[in-house]
Design a protein that fits this description.
By secondary structure, the chain is α+β, with helices and mostly antiparallel strands. It is built from 5 helices and 8 strands.
């Protein structure tokens, strides 16, 4: 392998090693307590299904999509507790609210944060609950959602060249998904926007593609 090609690859691996150590420290330090019944879903679930991969995606684009999440929301809201709502859901806390889904696309890879109650098809690998069993609101922080997206990248994309998802939130009602931009899963998750999401202007990446 030519040295010119090796250098960026080494940089990528070094970055991911550092990223993984940060993820672990954030995860262990996170103060939220979770519903134990969702523990099986609250770990990365990876898949090579064509419904997720669309036959092709560039893993480097997934890392760039993660950077978009960081620049768009993590750096803005950082570690503030927020209440995340499905389209049409009513707030149940006094916290600032964020309407989901939110979408971060870079080339062939897209990261989507969505309420699991809005995914009516039982199509998620490792899913053990039906849509109606999830709440329409949940509490989390963008710093933690970023760490979960990075965990999926490390565990699925980087380790096994797969895509995947993970449940998170105080009650496990939020899903963080990494999918191919042209995939069926991206279309399904993006279709939730048609249910009346009024926060689209806050995130230019919310436009379905």
């Amino acid at each position: 392998m030519a040295k010119s090609n090796l250098v960026p690859q080494l940089a990528y691996w070094k970055f991911n090693a550092l990223l993984y150590s940060v993820i672990i420290s954030i995860t262990l330090a996170h103060p939220l307590t979770y519903n134990a019944s969702f523990s099986d879903e609250m770990k990365p679930h990876c898949t090579d299904s064509n419904d997720w991969t669309a036959g092709f995606y560039n893993p480097n684009h997934c890392l760039q999509a993660l950077q978009k999440l960081e620049d768009t929301d993590y750096k803005v809201h950082y570690s503030h507790d927020l209440e995340f709502l499905a389209p049409g859901a009513t707030s149940r806390t006094s916290l600032s609210t964020v309407r989901l889904p939110r979408k971060y696309t870079s080339g062939t890879c897209t990261i989507i944060i969505a309420m699991l109650s809005t995914i009516i098809e039982n199509i998620l690998p490792g899913q053990v609950h039906q849509a109606q069993e999830y709440g329409t609101t949940d509490v989390s922080k963008f710093s933690y959602l970023w760490s979960i997206a990075a965990w999926v990248d490390r565990h699925c994309v980087d380790k096994d060249s797969l895509l995947g998802w993970c449940a998170t939130g105080r009650n496990g009602d939020i899903g963080v998904f990494t999918v191919a931009t042209k995939s069926k899963m991206n279309r399904i998750l993006s279709s939730v926007l048609l249910l009346g999401n009024t926060s689209q202007s806050a995130n230019p990446d919310l436009d379905p593609s």
